[in-house]
């Protein structure tokens, strides 16, 4: 007979380990199953290591251009191997922290690959043999994996996913990125700042598809400053290995072109990591793209089974997965929790950063909402000028009638930090006047949020008020 526990969480990423800890806090006996490493893709190959490289590349770029501040630096260079060691030390420290928290909350960790035998029982393939465990409830949090495309199968050598990019032993001289979404632009920008010649190929007519065009225009200008070549409305048709490097054929509106590169990063989307788990045999309902369908309580279509994170479909955000994990854990424990994502901030760590929460102007108008919109540019903000980071703006969208804040988009320095204040404003149902009346310390970047609120009310001091129609 299999041993029994209250709840099993499959996958120890930012959704899974958080769910396991919350279950334990609520008095449940929990087993966390992980086939690879604690922290999942986010900690080991995604969010954390990429942001370490992004931070380093940003500092290196600042050093190279510090002469405008009167700081002369000679001989600055990137020791890539040492950079990778530093990156890995951060990952290891955070992984140790997760292990400590799981132990402190009495969560049992079992390493192995899980598959369902029934809706109440799994089998775990471990290095020392298989084990069967039954439970009253299951949370599936196995994440996603990068998609390949025809003629560009990811091989880990020439054709890379974001995972292999984090494991490179040397800085490539040339990099071609297929896909101008968040991951492609973040990594493309990072390597460009460290000296790699970067080319980005995007099949749609805009970088960061689905993002406010006003913001993507700022990002594209900055890419051009870093000598990144961008092909829009273009597709990669294939490549050949030559003595010069990888010769890639690119189909553009004006005809075919060829580019030579050393590495190719494929960043075109992700797929639910649920193969060989027997979910469909249990009757778990999937959508047309293979993601698990769940309700607002994170319940799948089979009683007792919950799904969270990337396997429930985009957006692929660690903070979304964590919140879903908490909701699933609390529902299992009998609490009246639901996942509500109308206030779900996004952050893209390009140069400059892009962040958004709530409705864009276009989305609000599509819903038939009469809105007022205003911007405040970072070029008019004292703190931005003193930091030498003046690209971008804050854009605020409010109801014309009640002045409630409906959405905020930020492209500029520390956008990923600034968006949290905006998320709180939306969560609390704040009006633009609430934000404008909140005294912000000077000189700071968050003043831009206050200034945008004043601007949308027609009370701007540090930018010219838009004339009323």
Provide the CATH architecture of the largest domain: 3-Layer(bba) Sandwich
Q: Characterize the main sheet.
A: 7 strands, mixed
Put simply, the count of helices is 14
End-to-end gap: 75 Å
Q: Cα-atom Rg, whole angstroms?
A: 24 Å
Structural domain count: 3
List unreliable stretches of 5+ residues. none
CATH-defined superfamily of the largest domain: FAD/NAD(P)-binding domain
- According to CATH, what is the class of the largest domain? Alpha Beta
Q: Percentage of helical residues?
A: 25-40%
The chain-level mean pLDDT equals: 96
Strand content: 25-35%
User: Which term fits the overall shape?
Assistant: globular
Counting DSSP E segments of at least 2 residues, the number of strands comes to 22
Q: Give the helix/strand class.
A: alpha/beta
Could you tell me the CATH topology label of the largest domain.
FAD/NAD(P)-binding domain
């Amino acid at each position: 007979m299999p041993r029994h526990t209250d709840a099993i969480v499959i996958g120890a990423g930012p959704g899974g380990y958080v769910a396991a800890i919350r279950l334990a806090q609520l008095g449940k006996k929990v087993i966390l199953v992980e086939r690879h490493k604690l922290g999942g893709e986010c900690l080991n190959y995604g969010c954390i290591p990429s942001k370490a490289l992004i931070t380093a590349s940003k500092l290196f770029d600042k050093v190279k251009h510090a002469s405008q501040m009167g700081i002369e630096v000679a001989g600055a260079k990137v020791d890539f191997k040492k950079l990778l060691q530093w990156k890995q030390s951060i990952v290891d420290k955070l992984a140790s922290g997760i292990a400590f928290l799981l132990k402190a909350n009495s969560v049992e960790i079992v390493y192995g690959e899980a598959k369902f035998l029934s809706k109440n029982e799994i089998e775990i393939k471990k290095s020392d043999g298989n084990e069967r465990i039954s439970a009253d409830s299951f949370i599936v949090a196995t994440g996603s994996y990068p998609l390949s495309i025809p003629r560009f199968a990811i091989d880990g050598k020439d054709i890379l996913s974001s995972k292999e990019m984090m494991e490179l032993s040397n800085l490539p001289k040339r990099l071609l990125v297929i896909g101008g979404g968040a991951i492609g632009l973040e990594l493309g920008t990072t390597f460009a700042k460290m000296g790699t010649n970067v080319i980005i190929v995007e099949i749609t007519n805009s970088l960061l598809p689905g993002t406010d065009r006003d913001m993507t225009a700022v990002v594209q200008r900055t890419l051009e400053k870093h000598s990144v070549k961008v092909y829009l409305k273009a597709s990669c048709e294939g490549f050949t290995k030559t003595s010069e490097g990888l010769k890639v054929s690119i189909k553009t509106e004006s005809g075919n072109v060829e580019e030579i590169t050393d590495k190719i990063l494929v960043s075109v989307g992700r797929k639910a990591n649920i193969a060989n788990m027997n979910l469909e045999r249990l009757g778990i309902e999937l959508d047309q793209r293979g993601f698990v369908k769940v309700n607002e309580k994170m319940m799948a279509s089979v009683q007792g089974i919950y799904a969270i994170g990337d396997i429930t479909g985009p957006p692929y955000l660690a903070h979304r997965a964590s919140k879903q994990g908490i909701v699933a854990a609390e529902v299992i424990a009998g609490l009246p929790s639901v996942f509500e994502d109308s206030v779900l901030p996004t952050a893209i760590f390009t140069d400059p950063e892009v962040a958004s929460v709530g409705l864009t102007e276009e989305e609000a108008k599509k819903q038939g909402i009469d809105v007022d919109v205003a911007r405040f540019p970072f070029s008019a903000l004292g703190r931005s000028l003193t930091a030498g980071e003046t690209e971008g703006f804050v854009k605020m969208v409010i109801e014309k009638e009640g002045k409630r804040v409906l959405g905020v988009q930020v492209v500029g320095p520390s956008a990923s930090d600034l968006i949290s204040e905006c998320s709180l404003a939306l969560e609390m149902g704040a009006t633009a006047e609430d934000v404008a009346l909140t005294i912000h310390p000077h000189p700071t970047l968050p003043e831009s949020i206050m200034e945008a609120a004043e601007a949308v009310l027609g009370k701007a001091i540090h930018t010219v008020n838009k004339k009323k129609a």
